[in-house]
Amino acid sequence: MFLSYRGSRTTDRPSVLYIMFLSYRGSRTTDRPSEGSYIGNIETGTSLPSYVAKTKDTIRTNHVQGDMRFPAGLGIKMEHVQTVLAIPILQEDSGVLGVIELYRQFSTDSFTQEDEEVTATLLVWADVCVEYVQMYNSMMRQRKLNDFLLAVTKSIFQDIVSMDTVIMKIMNYAKKLVNADRASLFLLDTKTTELYARIFDTGKEHVPQKEIRFPMDKGVAGHVASTGQVLNITDAYNDGRFNREVDMQTGYRTKSILCMPIYIRGSIIGVVQMVNKKEGTFTMADEESFETFAIYCGLALHHAKLYDKIRRSEQKYKVALEVLSYHAQCTDDEYKIIKSTPFPDNIPGIIDYEFSPWDVEDNRKCLYVLYMMKDIFSMATKYDLDDMIRFTMTVKKNYRNVPYHNWAHAFSVAHAVYTVIKTTKHSFSPVECLALYVACLCHDLDHRGKTNAFMVKSASPLAAIYSTSTMEHHHFNHTVTILQNEGHNIFKHLTSDQYKQILGDIRQCILATDLALFFGNRARLQEVSDKNEFSWDDSEHRHVLMAISMTACDLCSMYKPWDVQLQVVNVIMEEFWLQGDEEKSQGLTPMPMMDRDKKDELPHLEVGFLVGICLPCYELMAQVLPNTKPMVDGAVSNLKKWKYLAENKLTVDQLPPEQCVKQLEYKTSENIQDSSETNKQTEEEESEEQNKLDAKAENKDEQTEESKMESVEENKNKSIDNPSEKGSLLTDVRSESSVLVHSDNDNNLTERDNT
Prior knowledge:
This protein is α+β, with helices and mostly antiparallel strands. 54% of the residues lie in helices and 10% in strands. The strands form 2 sheets. Strands 8-7-6-11-10-9 form a 6-stranded antiparallel beta sheet, with helices on both faces. The chain has a 5-stranded antiparallel beta sheet with strand order 1-2-5-4-3, with helices on both faces. A hairpin with a 2-residue loop joins strand 10 and strand 11. The radius of gyration is 46 Å and the shape is elongated. It starts with a strand and ends with a helix. The model is unreliable at 1-39 and 659-755 (pLDDT under 50).
């Protein structure tokens, strides 16, 4: 680039001053279209400026034309030059920034040593000025590039709608960046090793056309994709890699090309090709700017591909969900069967705590569910019976055929909470009652018969979605999915606020069946109850009681009559053992309660489970809702039998006959009495021993026996009726039972309920 000024032609000062600046990278000079400008190669050039730039020597001469060191002359077309002074402009690192030429056209006076020294001194300041100008220009270029890239980032990443949209934006911004006439973007298909494109720049707009493909090693783009080399071609028709067929078909003439690979994670994913710079040819500065831009292109294309995959996955998911929903919903025939079956007006014993839901025939369970649901709905809002039938039948259909966590279990838990709602003097709102019932009915939807820990250990997709309470979150989401099916929204008559409230309550209730949350809920409610601060007006108190109620109802089999409870326990253990068998097949060591080979430890496990989980839960329920005392009574009765089996190392089949069970219950009850009755009991025992020595007092012994039975029952009732009194009914039984439970049973308790 040349900079000139003209002065007086009669003075000794040079009439014309030319300064030539070199390009920073490479050996080409930067061009400037002005009269007398010169462009040449520094290494091969034969002009005076090229010689000075190459040798860094200062030249003073009166015979430029005849000097063999620079046969090409001054580098400018000046016919009357008489004498010349050429001095290199050096940088701090001894590099050449440029060359200054001073010459006289009409004066024959030679440049002197003094002229050379004055010029060199001035050049020191000129060098500083030029360096600062270059720094300023560089900073301004970088700032413009940063602003440009920021605009690119905002535009592309804020509007990733499809791959085609991203490609069109990249092509538009690429043309603006290097001032090109047209642009092309080719993506790499790694499976077929081909380059392909479906968006083409016609000069006016980007038109999606039929996709074209060509081998990865063909043409300019193929060469760049194969080698990763940047190509800056100034004359396309003189380059053997250029394919002229496209120009011949379109009538467009390609002159210059800038082609660069696009990387992501070190691999080439595509090629961007710029065609015909509008002014001149593509420069090194264009290459540097476009190299930075290509990084953003790679990120944008990578995210666009991910977006396309996600979008396709969503569509596949919707299709799969539609298919599964169709097959998972109750059919019209199933609906008509239930619809045509007469609904019972009254079900005897339905609100008894000893009622056995497992004895109800399977084809009658839905009728019982609808009977209870209609009763609870009538307290809250009006309902659509058709929606209620479809919802109930679909819920039944979405329980898997596993040994325990199936439709029968859901029915038993729903019945348990219905019993609590109907028999206790609670102050739950009608919507909360409805939430409790529906949550119990749906709390194990799509259960796979495996624990949360197993789901995590086996890297289940559900465990990847839900890091905590894995199955419980799935049960709730499945419930919402069923409600969203057409003709299944049983809550459609609720207001917007009520609908939002009931879904939130159902979620909290279902999550509460995870025993990991039970201990925290129990501690909060116990603290409030012990301080006599429980208030039905406090929503937090009601919600924590709802959570405890969910746990109590989920474990309802543990307070049922012995035969019913024993039957359900066997089913539960069969599901546990199936998981243990699967863990063994995978080379894992199952927990003792999951190990079929350790089934003889069942009485110990049941004692620990009743003492550590069930009874504390039932007892707390009885403190707040005294009418739930039958839960405690039933659990205590079953605990006596399990404790006897554990103490005597007997199996269930070895339990004494019914005639001996009463004696067993009496003897076991002596160990469960309240600590406040210990002294009284001791005196009675001593009296009994004394009477046994008297052969004449056999009738009196029998009366004492009956008196003790009545005393024990009275003490039990007294303890339950006044649960806040210290020395609970369960104190002695827990302390004595602790020696029967293996050291690893604490983990077993949690694992069991999580199933």
